[in-house]
Amino acid sequence: MTDNLQLNLQLRAAPSRVASPSGMAQLPRVDPITQLPVLVLFPHNRCNCRCLMCDIWRIKDKAELGLEAIAHWLQEWRTLGVRHIMLSGGEPLMYSRTWELCALLRKSGIRVTIHSTGVLLEREAKHLISHCDDVILSLDGPQPVHDTIRNIRRAYGRLRDGVSAVRTLAPGFPIAARCTIQRQNFRHMRETVASARELGLDRISFLAADVSSDAFNRLQAWEADKIESVALSAGDLPHLAEELQKLEAECADEFACGFIAEPPAKLWAKLYQYYQALHGGALFPEVRCNAPWVSAVVETDGTVRPCFFQPPFGNLHETTSLAAILNADASLKWRQHLDVSRDPICMKCVCSFQFNELPDKVSTKGESTV
């Protein structure tokens, strides 16, 4: 490792939390919740990829949220102030009534974002541009790397053809990408940015792989050998540092124009410091998140969570009012005592949401997991 790189590591990823900038407005933490601008909805429970870092594809029995149930809940969601619904899961494009759902949501004045693998994008391109506001695709690297991680035939080619179909029909339709950095692709970040450019995407964001929670169909937390197959090892960290340094130098234009969503310093924290912390060499990066106060997750079986990772509050099939679930005594007590800087789940979170403007305008600064 060069002396300059070693100095860079000492300055960028010292084992301490960075204090919040003075004068930064406090994130909204309002209880009881009367305005919930963002809702993440899992309409379908299965996926069409077989990625190592996710177990959703292991689900054997197909399940979906009934469109009639969603229509029934929708009036209350609008009363609660829901203005942006993100369709995730599972692969939303596998839902049998995707476009009926999107039409229903948009008719109610709700912005619709789809988080997708991109495998079905070409087939659904015409419907997508008619019924959605934007799409976020999972991109794991250049073609050979992406195909290896997705573990299905022509994953990259099908994503590429899908993007091309959308661009042909609607050149300005917003298409972003999200890349989960793990052992199989951390040496290819610059190539991933180049691939995103070549595909014609609008921007790309990066996050670390979640290896510590029971999210994404994990019946229990991963065992050590599974974590080792996904998370970077201590020996990988110098190579990650070199890749980040080269990314910063060679992709300065992409950082400057916002094509890479995170500034370099944030990537060093989100990736290098995060993986360093997994091995005890640093504290986890500072988390600034107000997701439990301004958003919620509704899963395919009706389970309601404050975010992807925290335990559920209740189930809409048992209590049809989302507000009643979010403002139940147990929910209020949980949020009252939640300190995201100390909560063990929040501290290791790879995907934080930061909503700063409520209720008239929603500013989402963060990433979501497909």
Query: Total helix count?
Result: 15
Could you tell me the mean pLDDT? 87
What form results from the Cα inertia axes? globular
Largest beta-sheet details: 9 strands, mixed
Q: Strand pairing plus helix content: what structural class?
A: alpha/beta
Straight-line N-to-C gap = 35 Å
Q: What order do the SSEs take from the amino end to the carboxyl end, as H and E?
A: HEHEHEHEHHEHEHHHHHEEEHHH
Strand arrangement in the largest pleated sheet = 6-5-4-3-2-1-7-8-9
> What is the radius of gyration computed over CA atoms, rounded to a whole number of angstroms?
20 Å
Q: What is the count of β-strands?
A: 9
Detail the poorly predicted runs: 1-24, 358-370
Describe the structure.
With 370 residues, the protein is an alpha/beta fold. 38% of the residues lie in helices and 12% in strands. Residues 1-24 and 358-370 have low confidence and may be disordered.
Summarize the structure.
By secondary structure, the protein is an alpha/beta fold. Helices cover 38% and strands 12% of the residues.
